[in-house]
Design a protein that fits this description.
This protein is α/β, with parallel strands linked by helices and about 240 residues long. The chain is about 35% helix and about 15% strand. The chain is built from seven helices and seven strands, in the order αααααβββββαβαβ. The protein has a five-stranded mixed sheet, sandwiched between helices. The protein starts with a helix and ends in a 38-residue tail after the last strand.
Length: about 240
Amino acid sequence: MPTRTIAALLVMLSTSPLGAQTSPSAVTQRLFDDARVRESLDQLRAEEPWVIEQQIALCEIPAPPFGEAERAAAYRAAFVELGLQDVRIDDAGNVIGVRPGRATSPNLLFTAHLDTVFPAETDVSVTRDGEVLRGPGIADDCRGLAVLLGVARALNRSGIETAGTITFAATVGEEGLGDLRGVKYLFRVELEGRIHSFLSVDGTRLGATHVGVGSKRYRVTYRGPGGHSFGAFGLVSP
C-alpha cells in the first residue's frame, strides 16, 4: 500500500470517526482539502528515498521467528529518534511508540511485523537493481516497518495534530508458529481495552482488507509402520 494512502487512512481514522450521515468519500475529500494533509503527503513522496533506506537497513538485521530481538532494538532506536513518546519493548517483544493527539481516545493501533519466515542462518543481504530490491523479507514485512517510520516522520514534519492518539507498534511472532503472539499480546495485555481502530501494513499487494480476518495454525503429526525407505522398504511411510 502506498505511503500516501496510509497517511490518509491514519488521519481519517484518528481525526474523523464516520457518523451515520457522513459518507467515506466526503470525509476523504475533506482530508485532502486540508493543507496540512496535502503537505504530509508531499513529504511522503519526497522522502521515499529515506523510507527505502530504512527498509534496507532493517531488512539486513536478522529477525527469524522467535529471534526478533536485534531488529527490535534497532526499531526502538528509530522510534526514539522520531520523537515518539513512551517508547518501549513490551514483555512479548513488541516495539511500541506513541504519537499523542488532543485526547488519548480514540486510539489507533498502527502496526507492521518484525519477523520473517526465514531461519536464523539465512543471508539477509539486500541487493538493488535499479528500482528493484531483492532480499529475504524485503517486502514482507520490511516494507511495512519502513512505512510506519515514514508516516510518523511525515506527520511530525507537517505538524498534523490528530484528535486521538496513534500507537505505532512493530510486532513479533506474525509468521509460522509465532501464531500472531505479538498482536495477541497487544490486544489481550499491553493495550487491553485501549484499541479503537487497528491498521496493519503487510504484504506486497496494493490493496486494503477492511473486514475481519482470522488465522488458524495446526501442528500435525503422522505415524505409520514405515520409516526411512532404505531400512523399511516396502512399508507405508508417514
